[in-house]
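Dear Dr. H.,

I hope your travels went smoothly. While you were away I took the liberty of generating a structure for the chain from your last submission, since the lab meeting agenda had it listed for discussion. I wanted you to have the full record in hand beforehand rather than looking at slides cold. The sequence, exactly as received, is reproduced here:
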Amino acid sequence: MNSDALMLYKLIILYILNRVDFPLTNAQLTAFILEKGYTNYFNIQQVISELIEDAFITIKTIRNSTLYRITESGSETLQLFDHLISQGIKDDIETYLKENKYELQEEVSTLADFYQMRKGEFAAHLSVIERSTPIIDLTLVVTTEEEAEQICNNWKEKSSDVYSYLITSLLEDN
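The corresponding predicted structure, in token form, is as follows:
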């Protein structure tokens, strides 16, 4: 892969991350590039790895998902080299993001992770993030890893019910 192509793929990833106000998973980042046939999966992974190494994007791992965000230096680099991305590619990215924004954001806005606190105690950390602001951030302590994992697995589907219940219950007059 030549260095111009490498640079373009880096800029495409930075451009995508710059156009959304929430982190994206590896699968979400690679989907657009693979769908358009710009390059293969392995080249994308190499580019992502170099962007992390250069501190142009940050990485956060939550359970089995790795989330990527553009950094300030990534944004500055994008501004300097933005002109190297053709208008056609930018238009394709904008269309892709517009068509998939709800699904992309939905996927990362409901976060669940668990960890062991001490022997016989596991914490399930659950949150819902709306426009970069946590609207609920909850930690439940349970006695087994299986319970913590089940809570995390059910969170995405049941978080809006839990949120509604909590709001209704806590705003109720006694």
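Two observations you may find useful: The chain has a mean pLDDT of 86. The radius of gyration is 19 Å.

With kind regards,
E. W.
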